[in-house]
Specification:
Blueprint: H1 2-13, H2 20-23, H3 26-57, H4 66-72, H5 89-113, H6 118-142, H7 163-192
């Protein structure tokens, strides 16, 4: 119950977000509803890959792997602009686009780990690129500025010192991507209900 309250709390703050000028725009509402469905599809594909990693490598529970995670240095893409008190659509959309780009690149590690499921991974990469493109197009249509956030230099992919580290790293990439998509989905849903 406490976890549910903590996860929901940032979204209650958004009800005062100054987006009235967007909420009545039919094209914007259509964009939101289409991309909510698209995000849900992507989440389902990430969940399918998570099940594969769980079934093939018995890597299913994050709490059992936290020490290895710290060693690998795999981090979550930022989305704090999508649930901050000073919510702005342009900042949130920009962070979603940045995160989609990071995870699209990170999926190469999954592709190496699960070559027999290349079509699912490649579809996921394409879907992430398409969702990012949809958001960019909508930002341009609405006249929203693309916001650039200072980021740490991104290495193309983590270097894994062993096959086990590659498995665990892939597990956390997928877990982080799933959490990222949950937050992005909630942000889009919030905008659709303004």
């Amino acid at each position: 119950l406490l976890l549910g309250t903590l996860l929901w709390a940032p979204w209650r703050v958004l009800h005062g977000a100054p987006l009235a000028e967007l909420s009545g725009d039919q094209d914007f509402q259509l964009f939101l509803h289409k991309n909510l469905e698209f995000t849900r599809k992507i989440k389902g594909d990430v969940a399918a890959l998570q099940r594969l990693v769980c079934d093939q490598f018995q890597l299913c529970k994050e709490e059992e792997l936290l020490l290895v995670r710290q060693h690998l240095g795999i981090t979550q893409a930022a989305l704090e602009q999508c649930h901050s008190r000073s919510f702005q659509a342009e900042a949130c959309f920009s962070q979603i686009r940045n995160g989609l780009s990071v995870y699209r690149g990170s999926l190469a590690a999954i592709l190496e780990l699960l070559p027999g499921h290349a079509s699912l991974v490649e579809t996921l990469q394409l879907d992430a690129a398409n969702l990012s493109s949809n958001i960019q197009q909508q930002m341009e249509d609405l006249g929203l500025a693309t916001v650039t956030f200072p980021t740490e230099p991104q290495s193309p992919l983590p270097t894994f010192s062993s096959h086990f580290h590659h498995q665990v790293g892939s597990f956390f990439i997928l877990a982080n991507f799933q959490r990222f998509l949950e937050t992005a989905y909630r942000a889009l849903r919030h905008l659709a209900h303004l």
